[in-house]
Amino acid sequence: MNHQEIKDAFDLFYATHNIDYDGRKHQYKLEGITCAGVSTISDFRPSPFLIPWAAKMVVEHLKDKREAIAKMTQEEFDALLLEAKKMHKTKSDEAKEIGTAVHDWCENHIKGKDLPVTKETMSSIGEFVKFELQHKVEWICTEKIVCSPSYLVAGRLDSLAFVDNILSVVDLKTSSRIGESYFLQTAGYALCLSEMGIPAERRLIVRLPKAAEDCLEACEVTTPLKDDVEAFLGQRRAYAWHNMVDMKYSEKTDNGNFVETKLKLKKI
Asked: Which residues contact 180 (CB under 8 A, 6 or more apart)?
């Protein structure tokens, strides 16, 4: 396909399908029916490294506070423990803010408008520009909503481009590592594009490091697309099942420190 044929395929799909996106709820609807998000499905199975990483955040928050802890009241110590317990979320939220800023810059750059570069985004943006210089890149679109009517899946595609003359799904990441969930995410985008009449030839993950001492990773996903799509759809079914159980067969209680979920079981 050439650039114009891809544009025509997008235009035809949007003209014949009613797709809505609610930014407040981060929710897609096709013909009024709620769709599962591509990234939500891909991340449904937690990454194994997250548990030890969360524990590490607790340790790092407490390790230099030994003298202060010795002078604390029980109430102050309890508050510190609760703060430490939430450190993984605090760090994650900070990383997400930087990631969002980097994605905003890249989106605008692809569209021909460069935003100001901050100290926090400088390394990632520098690596993005390096990727463009190292490869022949013809950007087609960015932040485009893609959808699979067959499986009620939708998402916002980072970018589609001809990279070294090959039509590629290009997924931009600012994480510290490339995870297997990205294989499923790019497969989800490829599935949606295929149903929209745009068969992407390959999937690329471009990891843009936040630390200056880290390096760019631009990698092709080489796992078979068919297998990745099957795994993606398997998680899509598991995600739907989980939501059904969560809505109909569980109840939540808030004890003041955290929300606990319990199953509503039928006793015999």
From this structure: 47
Three-class secondary structure of residue 17 per DSSP? coil
**Residue type present at position 239:** Y
How many domains are there within the chain? 1
Contact 139, 110 (CB under 8 A): yes
Is there a domain that residue 265 lies in? no
Model pLDDT for residues 254-263, shown as the tens digit of each residue:
766 666 778 8
Q: What's the CA dihedral at 38, 39, 42, 44 to 10 degrees?
A: -110
- Cβ-contact 22, 154 below 8 angstroms: no
Judged by DSSP in three states, 207 sits in strand
Domain that holds residue 173: 3-16+25-48+101-241
pLDDT digits (tens, 9 = 90+) for 196-249: 999 999 999 999 988 777 788 999 999 999 999 999 999 999 999 998 988 888
Contact between 234 and 242 under an 8 Å Cβ cutoff? The reply is no
Here the tokens at position 103 are: 């994605």
CB burial string 253-266: b at 16+ within 10 A, e below: eeeeeeeeeeeeee
